[in-house]
Amino acid sequence: MLIIGIVLAVLVLGAGIFLLVMKYQMSQIPKMTLEEMIAYTTKGKEDAKITIGTIKDGKVTITVYGEDGKALPEQAYDYEIGSLTKTFTSSLLCKAIEEKGVKLTDSINYYLPLSEQSYYPSLERIVTHTSGYKGYYWEWQMASNFVHGEKNDFYNITRDKLVNKLDSISLKDKVYPFKYSNFGIAVVGAVLEQVYDKPYKDLMNEYIQNDLKLINTNISDASGNLSGYWNWKEDDGYLPAGGLVSDIYDMVEYAKLHMTEKISYLALGHDKIAEIDATTKQYADMGIRMDAAGICWMIDEENQIIWHNGGTSNFNSYLGFDKDRQVAVVILSNFAPGYRIPATVMGAKLMQQLQNE
């Protein structure tokens, strides 16, 4: 018993010291320069590839960083962009609003063949993450994915499984507190499939190529010149929430399309349609704010930044822009979102730096 007591005391003390160290390290991040953040994040990582693209005064600058923050020769790398995919889904939704007469106030059962319930949420509540839907809903396929070592929890959760889940979810007709929902945006993808009568994979790939004119962005086939890509199936229901792969050149061009609103209907996604007040103290200390939401986009009202981020098992990303100052930042990283300093922290830092120059 004495030995057990000593072991437990050591563990508790160790955990306490670890938390104090972590808290101290987190407090130091806002004081770091961007260069210090990159050097720290890539320290000792031979395969590090963090690519940063900026737009300022009409000039595009692209830099690739490797191990220990060393600048590498400029090259296009293929990154999973994770939840930045949601902004592509919302861009297509904006097109459907203009082209097909879709209304944000429409409930999803107007488009999807669902059973009769007293209430289903509107598209507006879903795209602002105020619908009440959880981040995701448990499926037995997730257990199978885990057992088989599949990194993508959403692999082989089909579109039909996702839509069928809707009938078992009971929500009230109200605006719920902000709750980031992969499930919700996946449902938006299912709605777009119905509107355009085409599978999401084909629909999105064609939209990216024909409307956005991006040549190196597509639904992932688990291939690229980096490593650790997720597997997906063609009819996976969560593709609209995180299934795209892209490179820095396309993502900078994508940022420019939104910032300049060269495609007019993209402007619909940037307008505030919900107050979400989701900025935590930890986020605020690092210059990251979520004051309001557009159509999938997060809006930092204090710094006038419209932004989104993304993350998968081995990648994380950030895109932010200021329409008034015509400044944009894209950061693509081949590290997991929780590894050292994520792209979102770097991106917010760089955005404010460029805004103030």
Model description:
The structure is a single chain. The chain has two domains: 2-31; 42-356, DD-peptidase/beta-lactamase superfamily (Beta-lactamase). 38% of the residues lie in helices and 14% in strands. The protein has helices at 2-28, 34-42, 85-100, 123-127, 140-147, 159-166, 182-196, 200-210, 239-242, 248-260, 281-285, 343-356, and strands spanning 50-56, 59-65, 71-72, 79-80, 218-219, 244-246, 274-275, 292-293, 298-300, 305-311, 316-322, 327-333. Strands 3-2-1-12-11-10-9-8-7 form a nine-stranded antiparallel beta sheet, with helices on both faces. Strand 11 (316-322) and strand 12 form a beta hairpin. The chain is globular and about 55 Å long. The relative contact order is 0.17.
Quick structural summary:
The chain is an alpha+beta fold. The chain has twelve helices and twelve strands. It has two domains: 2-31; 42-356, Beta-lactamase.
| CATH class descriptor name of the largest domain | Alpha Beta
> Between the first and last Cα atoms, what is the distance in angstroms?
63 Å
Which percent band covers the strand fraction?
Answer: 5-15%
Report the average pLDDT across residues: 93
The arrangement of helices and strands along the chain is: HHEEEEHHHHHHEHEHEHEEEEEH
Based on CA atoms alone, the radius of gyration comes out at 21 Å
Biggest sheet: strands side by side, in what order? 3-2-1-12-11-10-9-8-7
CATH topology of the largest domain: the name is Beta-lactamase
Task: Let me know the largest β-sheet.
Answer: 9 strands, antiparallel
How many extended strands? 12
